Amino acid sequence: MHRNTIVSSPAHLPASSYSLVEQVNGRGVFSFCMCPGGIIATASTQQNALVVNGWSPSKRNNRFANSGIVVAVNETDFAGTHSLSGLYFQHKIEQKAFAAGGGKFVAPAMRMTDFVHNTLSTSLPLCSYIPGIKSALLCEVLPDFVYKSLQQAFVLFGKKMKGYYTEDAVVVAIESRTSSPVRIPRNADSLCHTQIANLFPCAEGAGYAGGIVSAAMDGINVALKLR
Ligand SMILES: Cc1cc2nc3c(=O)[nH]c(=O)nc-3n(C[C@H](O)[C@H](O)[C@H](O)COP(=O)(O)OP(=O)(O)OC[C@H]3O[C@@H](n4cnc5c(N)ncnc54)[C@H](O)[C@@H]3O)c2cc1C
Asked: pLDDT tens digits for 96-110?
């Protein structure tokens, strides 16, 4: 999910970021890649499937702030024993998000307070997402456990950070690619594939990282094994 708000910062104050985490019914919910002055952008890789992501220019001085809000997903959350079950689970939600937006990569969205009360937003605040946003019930896009975890987490985040839980924030679906839903097996010591000699599965796509720093660290570890 992505949360977007309009911010105004006086010139003498730096861009302000935040990092929030909560446990909701034993499941982690946390902010990811929070971008002050950021922009929500399309990160889709397939037709008729919507994925959003966020970034900020180096000055971080746009009028919006955005952050991915991640709900931890476990293998037991999706049915099936196929090695690509996680990918199918992800894809199904991305297709639902695309359909709920009405096409052309318009993203379904709700005001944060409406999200918590599960009410269709009658209007939406301005948003940095260029293809546009459309009011939709996100309980029809997200798996029940994701939706309910976010509902509770938003209220808890609001207690930690004044002004976080507000009708001026908009929740945009869906950032579904924070980490890979598959992992290519590798030997824990040599980091080489368990069956294919001289193949070194590495970083995010191979299932060993999520984000810039962990991907870079995994790359360094694999490079050191190649010496
Ligand atoms: C818009 C956006 C914003 C993001 N913001 C953040 C952030 O703020 N903080 C954060 O931690 N993470 C962020 N991420 C995630 C971050 O970019 C990734 O976690 C990270 O780049 C993963 O690194 P990687 O080396 O595993 O994969 P990549 O950086 O994707 O590198 C894989 C490389 O393999 C190449 N490749 C693919 N297929 C082939 C092939 N068949 N042959 C040869 N080469 C191939 C690709 O061209 C690419 O260069 C963001 C991602 C996006 C899209």
From this structure: 999 999 999 999 999
